[in-house]
Amino acid sequence: MPFRRVAVVGAGMTRFMRRALETPKELAFYATRMALDSCELTLKDIDGVILGSAPDAFDGVHRKGEYLIDGAGAFRKPVMRGYVGGGTGVWAVIQGWYHVASGLFDTVLVVCEEKMSSCYPHPQGAFNAIFDHTLERPLGTNLLWIFALEMHRYMATYGITERDIALVSVKNKRNGLDHPCSHVAGNITVDDVLQSEVMAWPVKRLDVSPTSDGAVALVMACEEKARRITHKPVWVEGIGWCLDTSYWTNRDLAYPVYVEKAARMAYKMAGIVDPRKQIDIVEPYDPFDYKELHHLEGLGFARRGEAPDLIASGVANRDGDLPVTPSGGLLGVGNPIAAAGLMKVAEIFWQLRGEAGKRQVPGKPRRGLAQAWGDLMQVGTVVVLGI
Amino acid sequence: MLPLEKPQQVHRALAWQGEIPTYNIYTFGIAGERFFRELKEHGRFLGTRCPACHLLYVPPRIYCERCFASLEEWVEVPGRGTVFTFTLAYYDLDGRRLEHPDILALVRLEGAHGGVLHRLGEVEPGQVAIGMPVEAVLKPPQERRGSILDILYFRPTRR
Fold it and tell me: Is the N or the C terminus of chain A less surrounded, counting Cβ atoms within 10 Å?
């Protein structure tokens, strides 16, 4: 391989919550300091910083990357801001990886922060402006009905029911009960989901993750440094990303081909030919419950239209053969956009090190995958980690 | 029409007039909440000190950006300092010409690292100078909201 091995060596995160009193900078500081402390490093040990954050409009600061740098440990350091909407959390890790893999830096901090509660009357106002201003925005586009259109197409193409999909929300909200940072975890039933308020049919309130505030940080290092920092480095084995057309109207909708392409890139690098057999844990992006299924299919863990079987059979439970979203995910822990994606990578890190506490997947998992998704619902970002 | 020709009369081109329909409510945060409450309720300025870097941050922060220490030592500082730099602004934000210019300055508070951006008052533009000692003039207590505008302006220090 033409590049150096890179490991994740530390992680930290704040609670995810509805309205934080903390400023975005303060949220970033809590997570970053925790990540540094977790591997006993100080700012002097860090060569560069990757900052991930979604639209500036959430925090209401038109230069959010630079604004956050003091809280992200980037004072007088080289900084990169990454931004691919909801895919940002995993994209930031990919950026961290190539800054180290290339030999440019030996150590980087990867910090993702989002404070959606400062955006009024609702972050949907900002989301409205991701759509085409001439063709789509005049209709009052919002994510709920755009997702509803995709979910309906997915259901109709493969004969999937709302009940099949609701099982994902039940599982993830239950898993989230064991996460100390959870915003919206709970023990709910399929009927609770089906009977919750219809927001844009078939999307109901309990099919959707919340808007949250929070931050997550990782420390990444080259092999030589990683081995000195910790006896439990978690290696980046594969990375991949891909964007579909920026015309929402010209996509398949029932199948995320861009996620498949991103996954294939990561699998090739990691030497994975059968992800179902070679990967022990998956953290797919789950802003809506059907998206977890969508992504499991794109990632090659199930054939098209068959991901619901993984959930219904219990295979995807934390003690199942292929634990899916053991963290609780965006549906259970919460969804501060960029931070939520990075939380998924942090979860794989903690799981592979056996440090996931009550969330720990049994059987000493050795390899995990985290995936995020976003922009105009067209980017797939994938990271495979292993020990 | 050439591809790069600009419309001579913009109203004749078809267009949809849109806006990004959001506004923001910004909390002051852990450090800011304490700073502005103290200013509002007691008219006092607070800072936090980094023991390792020997810096006094005013307005305060809960961490030192240089060494990443959590800052827990809160100290009161006087509401006075010196003009570090200033300008005379003859246009407002909407591009309107001002008859009397706004005097805007960066004021370094005594002993503090950093400072505050604010207006200068009770002084003629021609009298302002870099290095000039100034002091904060606050709104009356009942009019303070917990805002940087609870400071009306800085004026030359009266001895």
Answer: N
